[in-house]
Write a structure and sequence with these properties.
single chain; 2 domains; mainly alpha; globular; two-stranded antiparallel ribbon; 26% helix; 4 strands
């Protein structure tokens, strides 16, 4: 992916914006390259991109997405933008960190796996958009290194979208209770 030129993610983001304009309640985008296990700080592979560069690209992408959503009229709400009704949730099927990570930041004592870390169920999950009421704050539940488990963010989004608990057999609200105050109307 060339960060300065056309790319699949940029094209996907443009399609996602159009789907939101058309009324789609959920849109998913994929930003690849984070499951590296090695070369996270310096990537010696030809064409490799360390996580330090990936994070910069992700920040630029999220800034561009916020810019576009804030300037695109919401066809369902005259006088409002898509930002006002959209939640952007950055997630992964895993986190990095936890008990497997040593003081050096890697999952081996001296980084012999070429400077990488392993999977962990706890991580930070950036969330932004008009309905987000906890913006700019780190929310913590006091476990998992202070982070919420991602399924609690998922149930919070589902509740804010109006999904009733009895309709949620995949993510039972009792097991993964929604985070109070995360979203407008989300409990």
């Amino acid at each position: 992916m060339d960060p300065l030129g056309p790319n699949d993610f940029g094209l996907g983001a443009a399609v996602a914006l159009r789907l939101l304009q058309a009324g789609s309640p959920v849109v998913s985008l994929t930003f690849p390259g984070f499951d590296s296990h090695s070369g996270e700080v310096l990537d010696p592979r030809p064409g490799g991109r360390p996580q330090t560069a990936q994070v910069v690209l992700l920040a630029r992408t999220l800034s561009g997405l916020a810019f576009a959503l804030q300037r695109t009229a919401d066809p369902k709400a005259p006088g409002r933008t898509l930002w006002d009704s959209t939640v952007v949730f950055v997630c992964s099927e895993f986190g990095r960190g936890g008990g497997a990570i040593g003081e050096n930041g890697f999952n081996t004592p001296n980084g012999q796996n070429h400077g990488g870390s392993d999977h962990d169920p706890w991580s930070g999950w950036p969330v932004m958009g008009g309905p987000v009421r906890a913006g700019g704050r780190l929310l913590s539940d006091g476990s998992g290194g202070g982070f919420f488990q991602q399924n609690r963010v998922f149930t919070s989004i589902m509740k804010a979208m109006g999904v009733e608990e009895r309709s949620s057999s995949y993510l039972p609200f009792g097991t993964f209770p929604p985070i109070p105050g995360l979203f407008a109307g989300g409990g």
